[in-house]
Design goal:
With about 80 residues, the protein is mainly α. The chain contains three helices and no strands. The radius of gyration is 24 Å and the shape is elongated. About 0% of the residues are buried.
């Protein structure tokens, strides 16, 4: 577990202390919640990206899974 120092406004610290007897635990939960929200927001931003492609997503996946163009046995280069 990492031990660190952070600087936060006094009023925010007081509010956190009023809500919890364990400041470290309170901050840990707040950070976990924020990380989850950022990850969800990033995932939501990625929705619809496949719609910008000229090919169907199934065709792209099928092409990626094929051996076409990979040249596994070709050691000449």
């Amino acid at each position: 577990m990492a031990k660190t120092s952070v600087t936060i406004p006094d009023d925010l610290y007081q509010q956190a202390k009023e809500l919890s007897d364990n400041f470290s635990s309170f901050v840990t939960e707040a950070i976990k919640d924020h990380i989850r929200k950022v990850k969800v927001a990033n995932a939501l931003k990625s929705f619809g990206k496949w719609e910008e492609r000229d090919k169907e997503s199934t065709d792209i996946v099928r092409e990626l899974r094929s051996d076409k163009g990979r040249g596994y046995a070709d050691r000449s280069h």
